[in-house]
Amino acid sequence: MHTTTVQSSQANQDLLERFEAVRGCRHHFPLLRQRVNGKPLVYFDNAATSQKPQVVIDATLRYYEEENSNIHRGVHYLSERATQAYEGVRVKVQHLLNAAHQREIIFVRGTTEGINLVAYSYGRTIVGAGDEVLISAMEHHSNIVPWQILCEEKGAKLRVIPINDRGEIELADYEKLLTSRTKIVALTHVSNALGTINPVKTMVAMAHAHGIPVLLDGAQAVPHMKVDVRDLDCDFYVFSAHKAFGPTGVGILYGVTKLLDAMPPYQSGGDMIKSVTFEKTIYNDLPYKFEAGTPNIGGGIGMGAAIDYINEIDLASLAEYEHELLAYATRGVAEIPGLRIIGTAREKASVLSFVIDGIHPHDIGTILDDEGIAIRTGHHCAQPVMQRFGVPATARASFAFYNTKEEIDVFLAALHRVREVLA
Taking the model in full, what pTM does it have? Predict the structure, then answer.
């Protein structure tokens, strides 16, 4: 018994030390040092965009100061240097996602463009009249509207997997919706509005049992957990750099080689061609077939610095710490009369969406902003989720590893003041 107690004590001490190491990263983020409305900034809007560590800011600035040149086309020193730096990021993303090949990593502007690329290029080749595209009831608009447009164009039907009152996928209903008419399944890995972590590995296997490919929206997953696309066995995976501590305007589409090879280009222009004559154009090889025009080179290099930064952090400790923040905040808001959490899935990432009886979420956000606290209010580009739970909008606090329990205490105190002022 004594040995067990000692081991448990040591485990707790080890966990505390790992948490302290994660908390210690906070000083790497310069924006978090500022004051808003005379109060220390409490930034709880990480699901919308994360803050950037100094190394990412420096890497992006360094490109413009020391390497600025177009890539792939020049034989001079600066072009070759910029090309090497940019293409090096492709390798970093390959390793981050455990993709099989560099050619499976496509640079895009973000998650939205990645989904549109698959819908317009792959979707148009496989979806026809009477076919079905399957999504869930918790999707971001970016994983709804492209499929709606495709279905309207092709005479196909968009089918929706229901969710329960906790905000979890109904797997039995999902199984029933997988039929010979289903041509692709598009799912969020982690819900931006509810925080639900979907059982995507199981869901991919269920779809593949019917020969149906799967796209996963990883915008909210990559910043919070290890993603292994070969373990998930998904066919497409998309994410944005700006939610994963990198710059805005750049992201990644992963796709298996066999499918990408068969897909027509999404956009056309420079760099996606091998040769052009007025009679015929020969497209470039993967991945360049899908990368028309000059990309966001500085943003891509900044994303590479963000990946290096993530790799230096113990991801398991990061996830544990963020889960502890979520649990701490969840316990705290439970003590606020009239507050209801929207999204109580058993598996959740660090998103806390809520409403308070009789108080509009925008008013909550305004009062919290007066206290220097940044949260998100509205429908979070997930209006069907709001309709499912019978609310026009929610207030959403979303946490990252640079946040603290002390900040949550400030947040909770401010929520009590919201009730005193408005209830």
Answer: 0.94
